[in-house]
Amino acid sequence: MNVNKTIRNGAETRANQGFQANKPSRRMSVAPMLDWTDRHYRYFARQITRHAWLYTEMVTTGALLNGDVARHLRFDEAEHPIALQLGGSEPAELAACAKLAAEWGYDEVNLNVGCPSERVQKGAFGACLMAEPQLVSDCVKAMRDAVDIDVTVKHRIGIDQIEHYDYLREFVDTVAEAGCHTFIVHARNAILKGLSPKENREIPPLKYDYVYRLKRERPDLEILINGGVKTNAEIAEHLKHVDGVMVGREAYHNPWLMAEWDALFYGDESAGPERAAVVDAMMPYVTARLGDGSNVRHIARHILGLFQGLPGARNWRRMLSDSKLLDGADAGLLRQAYEATLAGRRG
């Protein structure tokens, strides 16, 4: 399949269209992933793609209202466009947290209605909220009343053994009545009992046709698809049917997948990234974060896949995961690891 030809047909005219005229459209985004999409990973991802939307890890309302707000919400200006994902089910609490998101400069606040973990269920939010569409609608309305930034919802196509399309459609229709315009649909059911979060990402079958049908039936809504996407060819196919594609673990483990997104999916023909330039950009960032109390280990774990699939990649991963080298390291370790990567490539 010729991905370039498929996507560039009309990409130039659609590049900056979408639902926010002053920001890139959500044609591409990186999924919120707990313990993974922290500020360090997001800064790294932004060195590879200029236009894709970046989502935070899920942050619970309790963590913001009763904890260290700065620790959860701080980000680098380079990360825009950026969305904060919230976990919660109390409209007033979500509204208060949405206000914090707006005050801190986020471009979007997203409500998690997709996480199936038992810990999240004990808090009565995440995927179990799909059983309460009116409550989700109330939460969205409260957030929309509190802020001017976009309020979006990320959800599954169903829960447990409820597998018929009408369940998804009724959920979306109910929440859309509260003014939600953007729905990010993980095209699997969430099994609330008996499967781990990892198994919930792999075992329930993907039903992309449900999401395609939703877009056909609700063309007034912005519909993004998520789940199981691994290649740019797959992304190109999905974009024939929906407004955007959200990629999760593949963007994390194989980050250079994102290197073509600006050209393929936004029509941006300017020079794409070079891996050496990404390393160069990360070095001053590491130095700055060391001054904030972080250490190289916190950042290095997110960039191990930069040379995935290339000769010498093993040297990069080895040096940036070596506990002895990481202890007390500064940004110079990245340069040393890069030189070792080049040496491995020559060898």
Automatic annotation (TrEMBL):
Pfam families, per database record = Dus
The catalytic activity, as recorded, is: 5,6-dihydrouridine(20a) in tRNA + NADP(+) = uridine(20a) in tRNA + NADPH + H(+); 5,6-dihydrouridine(20) in tRNA + NADP(+) = uridine(20) in tRNA + NADPH + H(+); 5,6-dihydrouridine(20a) in tRNA + NAD(+) = uridine(20a) in tRNA + NADH + H(+); 5,6-dihydrouridine(20) in tRNA + NAD(+) = uridine(20) in tRNA + NADH + H(+)
Region (Disordered) residue ranges read 1-23
Domain DUS-like FMN-binding, residue spans: 30-331
Keywords annotated in UniProt: Flavoprotein, FMN, NADP, Oxidoreductase, RNA-binding, tRNA processing, tRNA-binding
Instruction: State a single Gene Ontology molecular function.
Output: tRNA-dihydrouridine20 synthase activity
Question: According to the UniProt entry, which residue ranges have a biased composition of type Polar residues?
Answer: 14-23
Q: Which residues are noted in the entry as FMN-binding?
A: P32, M33, L34, Q85, K154, H186, N226, G227, G228, G248, R249
**Gene3D superfamilies, per database record:** 1.20.120.1460, Aldolase class I (3.20.20.70)
- Name the InterPro entries on file: Aldolase_TIM (IPR013785), DUS-like_FMN-bd (IPR035587), DUS_fam (IPR001269), DusA (IPR004653), tRNA_hU_synthase_CS (IPR018517)
User: At what residues does the UniProt record annotate the site feature described as Interacts with tRNA?
Assistant: N112, K198, R201, R314, R317
Q: Which cofactor does it need?
A: FMN
What EC designation does it have? 1.3.1.91
Output the PROSITE patterns linked to this UniProt entry: UPF0034
Catalytic residues in the record: C115
Q: Please indicate if the UniProt record lists RNA-binding as a keyword.
A: yes
Describe the function of this protein.
Catalyzes the synthesis of 5,6-dihydrouridine (D), a modified base found in the D-loop of most tRNAs, via the reduction of the C5-C6 double bond in target uridines. Specifically modifies U20 and U20a in tRNAs.
Q: Which family does it belong to?
A: Belongs to the dus family.
Q: What is this protein called?
A: tRNA-dihydrouridine(20/20a) synthase
Q: Which organism is it from?
A: Chromobacterium piscinae
